[in-house]
Amino acid sequence: MQNIHVALPGAVESPASCRPHELVELIRLDPALRLDVRYATAENFIGRAVYPEARVLLQRPGAEALVRINRRLKGLGYGLLIFDGYRPWSITQLFWELVSEKQRPYVADPAEGSRHNRGCAVDLTLYDLMTGREVTMPSAYDEMNERAHPDYAGGDPEPRRMRELLRTAMEADGFTVYPTEWWHFDYKDWREYALLDLPFHAIV
After folding, report:
1. pLDDT tens-digit readout, 109-125
2. Which strand (E) or helix (H) includes residue 135?
């Protein structure tokens, strides 16, 4: 597999100093992981598809952690519903160009790159195994306001309880929630990987 690294001005990393990437398809590891890749549809904050296909990939350590988390949640009656994983750097650049100044705190600055670009971030929520329905959280996915913050204390208590259940499950296996998005979690070794702009079709 060809590595396509992004060299950013002032970046301290280089391909030689980073771990080789091993992006793996989540549903190949565990078909029980459910996908809802909205960036492959028009149902997203851009209003059009920006991914050519509905795939979710992560570096192998983070992907294997998600499989373990999903299996533990099954005992509580829930499963993971995955929105996004690895994101090519060029899509991060596109998001930055299209959002307003007010929305920019909720998207990654391409000058620094995103942990999604490293294959070490995942956007996800819970779904109810009995009904198959996505659980209600304090905000919708990609909602860009204070309700999206993982410490938001407003709204009904049950969505906050579901948000904390997700966070607890993820943090128990090496993930950390992003400060402004309850759905975004970074895997603990993200610093070890380089930024990538590898297109989906190049990942077998």
Report:
1. 999 999 999 999 999 99
2. none
pTM: 0.91
Taking the CA atoms of 149, 187, 7 and 44 in sequence, report the sign of the dihedral they define: negative
3-class DSSP state of 134: strand
Name the catalytic one among 97, 134, 181, 192. 181
Residue 143 annotated among the catalytic residues of the structure: no
- Domain contains 94: yes
CATH number of the structural domain spanning residue 131? 3.30.1380.10
Q: What is the 3-state secondary structure (H, E, C) of 46-101?
A: CCCCCCCCCCCEEEHHHHHHHHHHHHHHHCCCEEEEEEECCCCHHHHHHHHHHCCC
On whether residue 6 sits in a domain, the answer given is no
State the total domains in the chain.
1
- Owner of token pair 């990393």: 13
Tell me the Cα Rg of the chain: 16
Residue range(s) defining the domain that contains residue 70: 15-202
